[in-house]
Specification:
The protein is an alpha/beta fold. The protein contains ten helices and ten strands. The longest helix is centred in the C-terminal third of the chain and has 30 residues.
Length: 342
Amino acid sequence: MRVLGIETSCDETGVAVYDGARGALLGHVLHSQVALHADYGGVVPELASRDHVRKTLPLIERVLVETGLNGRELDGVAYTAGPGLVGALLVGAVVARSLAWGWGVPSLAVHHMEGHLLAPLMEADPPAFPFIALLVSGGHTQLIEVDGLGSYRLLGDTRDDAVGEAFDKTAKLLGLGYPGGPALANLADEGNPDRFTFPRPMTGRPGLDFSFSGLKTHALVTLRDLDPDDATARADVARAFQDAAVETLAIKCRRALRETGLNTLVVAGGVGANRALRARLQVIAAAEGGVARFPRLEFCTDNGAMIAHVGALRMAAGELPTEEFAVRPRWPLDELRPPAEA
């Protein structure tokens, strides 16, 4: 089951070929639009869509050359159908379905977050079902109980800002560049962990939901009382913010492991690349007699490999090709079903 995967949900154009029979990634390429959007301090949807138009076909050509395949040797084409920016999603969908029709192979719409969720299964020692997944990105902060492919139960969700969004907005308050999350994490490495203590939102009450807007506001109020030219103070605020965000996620993950009785924690999404978060969750999982598992760093952020991987899994499990041409900018993960029920 050799599947071409196309990812165009936001500001990365990713293309990959995954061989399900061998459980191997045959090739993948990625183009990032960071430089394109840097002057605007965030993603401009129209610019993102236009860049996907320019880059998607050349990247497909490149990955096919690298893998030595032609389109008719593929078993299918998978593409991100949502959630994401509608214009960007439409570019990937149109290209994928057109190529699949021309090559005479099926096409399959894939959920972007399912791609992230199952990315650790591409590693040499993949986690076994069932497990708890923490999905952390610019648009999502969710805890999910994963019983199998397409069998997901939402345990906790964010009530306002996702943690990645909070990182980016706080980075902007600190005068850092785009993308803000990694810049804040680097600045936090220089900060004093004892100078400021930020709240751990919603950890003092039962439940597994999250809230990060108040944490961002706390950073804003703290910065108002500081000299804007004091680089040391800015680093200390970055450290306090990151410590609070990481500890909040860790507390909720520990609670989810205890409530479900599961002992494997899978962490996926762009914020899963944060070094402090990885270290803390490994400690938390070990203390609960379990283990924390992560995709390799290059597959934490958006990429075509995770889309090709999910497409191969679902096609091999008997899911039928996508007949309806549609993309879904908003698409709750718990609406997905196992392939036999899809």
